[in-house]
Design brief:
Protein name: GNAT family N-acetyltransferase
Helix content: 40-55%
Strand content: 15-25%
Distance between the termini: 66 Å
Largest sheet: 14 strands, mixed
Number of helices: 14
Structural class: alpha+beta
Pfam families: Acetyltransf_6 (PF13480)
Number of strands: 14
Length: 451
Amino acid sequence: MADLAVSASGASGAPGTATATSTGTSTAASDPGLHLVHDPAHGLSVTVRRHLDHAPVPEWRALAHRAGQPPFTGPDWLRAVHSHLGRGEPLLVSVRRDGRLLAFGAFALLGGPRPLLTFLGAGGSDYAGVLTDPDADVPAVRLVAAVLDGALREAPGALWDLEQVPDGEQAEVLVAWARFRGYGVRTLPQAVVHTVALAATVDEHDAGLGRHARHEERRQWRRLAELGELTVADDLLEAVTAARGHDPEAAADRLEELVTELAEVDDAHPHADRRRRPWRGASGRTLTEVLWTSPPGTVQLSGVRVDGELVAYAFCLAGPRALHGYVQSYRARYAPTGPGTLLLLRLCRRAVLSGYRELDLLRGDEVYKRRLRPTPRRTVRLVLTPPGRDVVPALADRLALLRRTYRDEVRRSERLDRSWTALVGAVGRVREEAARRRGALPAPPRIRRRR
């Protein structure tokens, strides 16, 4: 389908736009910027693309950086995730004034009895949201409204299922728009995100660790070095980057070899039977594309080798405000030397030297994260249902959304969440015991039936 360019004026009469409710009106009166949601004119133009081809990649990257958003909201991550893991039809909404990109929303439109809009890359991204230019002389709430209204014109009356929205200003603006448009809103807690405040200098960082921890760190490095020739690589992508300019084919081969090494480390992890394998299958293809397409410096991939063998690695994404630690792993036979912890401590020092003041450990409540005394944050899931539905269609909408959100609905209740976690743990233990028994017991003899 050809790109659709429309004026952002007259939003109140756009198809699929609900009449403001009394709640929305009162909110608008208390917020001098929100009433502009109803008429986001003043020179703004909205362009909607229903494909990823010819997306404004450089402008999209620059806007994400100006907005202080992590790479999960940028083109390199989202295009890769959608290509290999995503569902639905891409729907990209650009808001400009005088040709300058001021806001951008990347969505996926899923068909069915009732159209449904999600953020592009839903399920595979740790953060999502609408990008707005903080330097624009247009209120962010008006820019967000123009983006959402533009998407809604393409899918009038659609349901919205917006995952992994940081709990705070971004979620508040999305909810304000929804209520002003008359949508029903459900806010579901979704993930715990741990962030670690970094010191201003490496000396301050080391002082915060304490004398005993520093002594143990040095001892573990010595133990690791005793096992063979020790090499610490702060940039495992260095050879790939160096070859790309003059020999892209050799660079691609080197990248393939590196991804194979990373996958082998995961396969040899102490808990490989329970951990996901990020470098295998569709996930592996996604991360490989991210490594290949991202601008230099966006992906930080470090590792430790002993006698040439990769024994541990850390994969991070560099944002404008924080360093985001996506995944790390190590081989089980090197576990007594703690290579994962050693690499993480080195990563923290390098982040301090690079000027970062925050290490974002992303979603997940793993034990090793809590050892770093992190600050917990949350992301939420916003489920928006349009107004004016009769009882039966509204119930059908609710059931359709519940099929997508039931896990997060369970987490709303502390008691149900504990029961769900206990059930999942029990099922996991039963599966592990069954697998152990299958491995320990000999195969039953084949019995040949007599004729």
